[in-house]
Amino acid sequence: MGVSKEDRQPYFDAIPCTRFVTYQADAVTSNQSGSPHQLLRAMRSRRQLAQEDIAANLQVSKAAVSQWERGDAWPSAHHLHALCYFLKAAPEEVLALSRGPARLGPGTHPSLESFEHHLENGPRPLLRSTPNPLLDLEAISLESEATLLANRESVPGPGHEVLGEIRAMYSQALLMWGRPAEAKRVVRCALEVPTGKTPACYYYRAKVIDAQCAFATGSTYGRRHRRCSSTTRHDMRTHRRPPP
Hints:
The protein has a domain at 10-23 and 108-225. Helix content is 65%, strand content 0%. It has helices spanning 5-13, 19-29, 36-46, 51-58, 62-70, 77-86, 91-98, 112-121, 135-151, 158-176, 180-191, 201-217, 220-237. It is an all-alpha fold.
């Protein structure tokens, strides 16, 4: 009890990873990240359709559509063909989905190696000046490869950092092309990736994107900060200090 903080710190530093951090790493990287089920949801959201719209067109229940997107079930060949036709899926997306509910693995463009190369040397992948019809497929495929890499790490390392970077960049691209609700969901997943003692660079950019999504979607966070900002601007004009 009489040991100082400085004397206790070396013992805490010697602990490789707490059970909580290990549990969090498993929880983040063992979900449906980078799966065709995620691509189905992205294709629907891209068309600004609800699950009820899909269910009515395919003549199935809303619960069935929800199971397809959660990963609890996979549509039959007939329903998958009708779904791709209704959502105007790109040929590359149809080919990826026709492989079944397995993870979207290597073979799609760009690869994880090219992503890391462009991340270091530019231009930044997934962020283009023109709309990319294959944005969802490319990002989810990269996320699938990065998830497998992160799952091989017992503690947060380069694999987790690449996974967080992909999710942050994907959310930024979604926000850029007018899909703030999806961007908010993806960036929250980026913020949940364990980063160890020192947060990676993508973490701070993801916090900014999260705030931008809150403004764009009109959430409570965004409304509160808009109100505070307007109050501050009014006080600056009237030369009054804002209330504490």
